[in-house]
Amino acid sequence: MSTDKAVNGQPKYINPYLGGVLLGLLILATVFVTGRGIGASGAIKSAVVTTSNTVAPSATQSNAYMGKFVSDDHSPMYTWLVFESLGVLLGGLLSGLIFGRVGKFRTDNGPQITSKKRWILAIIGGALFGLGSQFGRGCTSGAALSGTATFALGGVIVMFGIFGTGYIIAYFFRKLWI
Amino acid sequence: MGPLIPNGIIGEGWDFVIAILIGIAFGFILEASGFSSSRNLAGVFYGYNFVVLRVFFTALIVAMVGLMYFDYFGWLDLSKIFILPTYLGPMIVGGIIMGFGFIIGGYCPGTSFTGIAIGKLDALFFTVGLYLGIMGFSLAFPLFEGFYNSGSMGNITLTELTGIPAPYFAMAFTVVALAAFWGTMFIEKRVRKNMKQYKF
Lengths: 178, 200
Prior knowledge:
- The complex is a heterodimer.
- Chain A is an all-alpha fold.
- Chain A has two domains: about 1-105, no CATH class; about 105-180, no CATH class.
- Helices cover about 65% and strands about 0% of the residues of chain A.
- Chain A has helices at about 1-10, 15-35, 40-55, 55-60, 80-100, 115-135, 140-150, 155-170.
- Chain A is globular.
- The two termini of chain A are about 25 Å apart.
- Mean pLDDT of chain A is about 95; it is low at about 1-5.
- Helices cover about 70% and strands about 0% of the residues of chain B.
- Chain B is globular and about 55 Å long.
- By secondary structure, chain B is mostly helical.
- Chain B has two domains: about 1-85 and about 165-200, no CATH class; about 85-155, no CATH class.
- Chains A and B meet through helix 2, helix 3, helix 5, helix 6 and helix 7 of A and helix 1, helix 2, helix 3, strand 1 and helix 4 of B.
């Protein structure tokens, strides 16, 4: 019961503006050190290419999209974004441990839907996000945030695309969340 | 001086060590801000929790203004940093599809990783979905290839597009962000009054 309270009671989040300043400084530091911003969807793309290259190497190498990410001297998992995303998992776990939010498997869903329905919707939403991120050349972190922070037109387009669409369609999906 | 790795000041061998360290900081900030919960994230679209807007816009203006200063002090050569290439049509369509993915799935990729880290099953399923979506895209790529490569404008910035210097954009984003921070405070208060089942 006490763990449930820590998880479902008053979550101890940091001040959002502090979180934002820290995240902004992190992007600044990342650009200063590596010459580019942060990302997330790229790691999943590497996992897709790796699976495909293990199951069907010749088909993968001749695939006009995946073939670009296959190289002879190292696995497609050996990329910057894969290491960074492993770090994201570790960092998330570290924060969860410090603030007492690491718990047994559980699901967040709106009051009007079941957990099972939430899982199916999460898969569908994830698939759409994955698909969109390939056309968008990145997701919320790589394109919308890092892209816009470096004044890239594409970043601004993706940012307005994601959030603009979200606000336009939110009403029709309100039963999922409120 | 910067960027340090492209300029050879830090050796390439450190690349992956730095990647993990940056990732840890990124994951920590996301989780500590409450981005490991899909209900917190979705709140930005329904007015009951604007944490996404606050963190995102604050990060954006801090990074933007920071880059301006780094450039001004001569610490960072902005011509050497990566500028995301623009593909007009595909990026509009991609953004719209991601908007649907966000509302339906409740996460975006980075936040779903932090959700998994603390035991959220919906985050795990979202990541499975990401994998399936990218796999589907890759396998069906011949169908999309023409569209995917269309509308290429190169690595173009807002300044190159409009001729307006970057600091003006940084200024505009800052003013809009501050107005949004102020306005959403009242919206959130009103909406939360009518929500009993959601714990903040």
